[in-house]
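This part of the workshop introduces the protein records we will be handling. An example says more than a description, so a record of this kind follows.
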Amino acid sequence: MFPSVNEQMDKIRRGVDEIIPEEELVKKLERSIKENKPLRIKEGFDPTAPDIHLGHMVSIRKLRQFQELGHQVIFLIGDFTGMIGDPSGRNEMRKHLTQKEVLKNAETYKEQIFKVLDPQKTMIDFNSRWHAKLKFEDVLTLTSKYTVARMLERDDFKKRMKAGKPISMMEFLYPLVQAYDSVALKADVELGGTDQKFNLLVGRDIMTEYGLEPQVILTLPLLIGLDGTEKMSKSLGNYIGINELPQEMYGKTMSIPDNLIYTYFELATDVPNEALAEIKQALADPAVNPMDLKRRLAFEIVKIYHGTETAKQAEEEFDRIFRQKKLPSDMPELRLSVSEGKIWIVRLMASGGLVQTNAEARRLIRQGAVSIDGRKVTNLDLEIELKDDFILKVGKRRFLKVVVIK
């Protein structure tokens, strides 16, 4: 039994940038109720990176909402298209991945998405299932269904042509290959970020060319990262990973700019629409401290991925460190022998897992974000004598207890 069309549309509209066209979606929902048949809701993911963050989860959470409304979700892993590389939002060609890299990343995707999606109501598919079987004549037929003029309307391509940067024929084919996924799956609805709008529209056109009812498109906003300016991205370091420790997830959420509080509530939490209206009203009230709303936001986000009890513990740990100015109740340890004599601060940060590269360590030291037992480190060449235990702190939330074995 499906909810009414109005109930479904209220849920579907939340946090969506565009529904193209909305009247077609209404008709599809009406038919779905009449025939008691779920819609096929598709989203494709090119597994170009192994870790999922809150930005990725915006659309995945929308897929979950469709599941709650009774529809069939198809989580499409673009193992074939992932080896091409999506040119969306790019001013230059993407690096191509090997099949081994793509499949490895795909496995980690599958592990993470079920933190939100219902495994019983999720169909996972791989687009190599049909693309690998296409003959060259099939590819030529596909290319005949779209014009070069239409392809050059794409913003990314226009900018690159103007700048004299190369566009490979493979990149021209990418939107057609992605569009054919919708043909193969007979999708009713396809989701994607606002940067995917061109590709999704091509999907509508190509479905019509193959004699199918075109899919409706839902575009979703690109979640702005912790820096408050760029979209959330691991490469920019402004992300909240869904596999991160609860304390880290809570602390990162507390660091977002105040102007993003409502957006994060809307796109990254399960608070009902009525509560969203209250949050918007509270944010407009000068008497309300945004920090209190941010605490609620951080709690809600941690709860989704780690559970209520863990969210409470993360909140208590945050208060312990930032309100009571105490050390974390639990922190990682690095054991070093006194016989080693000294250790370079940069090497220590990397060995302790506080940074990924030496360059990152140097950058943090220059920024004044590194301290030992509360004393700021300013010397990039500092050699620490290993005599007694000490606490190394990087940034606001990363701690390491160095235990010196004598």
